[in-house]
Amino acid sequence: MPAHVQASVLQRLIPMLVLLSIAAAAIPAVRPVRPDSKTINQNRSNDGKTLHHTPRYEFAYGVKDPITGDHKDQWEKRDGDRVQGVYMLEEADGTQRIVEYEADDVHGFRAIVTNVKLPKATHKQQDPIAHSYSMLQATA
């Protein structure tokens, strides 16, 4: 950008920035209201009593990109305070890393890591499009 254009832009921009900073200083600070930790993840019944919420989820996904060689899968399940899962990824050295893990409020996080040598790939024609996929069956 030519120097005379830069100077023109700065001459217009600096007064606007000064006005903006003055206006921002005049606005009172707004702090977010954090809910009481006792009300998070709780539901109330019709009679007003607190019901306890037990977190539950399960997910799984995979990615396979023949162009970059990115191939990985993950599965995880949570029921209350217990989480179980496994993820696998293909390393550049021709091995697959498999990590099986568990976490709970008694033992903390534990993982078993295994490296497996992958067989040499046969060079067959592959679809040059990357894919992502879910490894779970759809439920109605």
Automatic annotation (TrEMBL):
InterPro entries named among the record's database cross-references: CHIT_BIND_RR_consensus, Insect_cuticle, Insect_Cuticle_Struc_Prot
A GO cellular component entry from the record: extracellular space
Pfam annotation, one family: Chitin_bind_4
Protein name: Uncharacterized protein
Signal peptide (residue range): 1-25
GO molecular function, a single term: structural constituent of cuticle
Keywords: Cuticle, Signal
Keyword Signal tagged: yes
Organism domain of life: Eukaryota
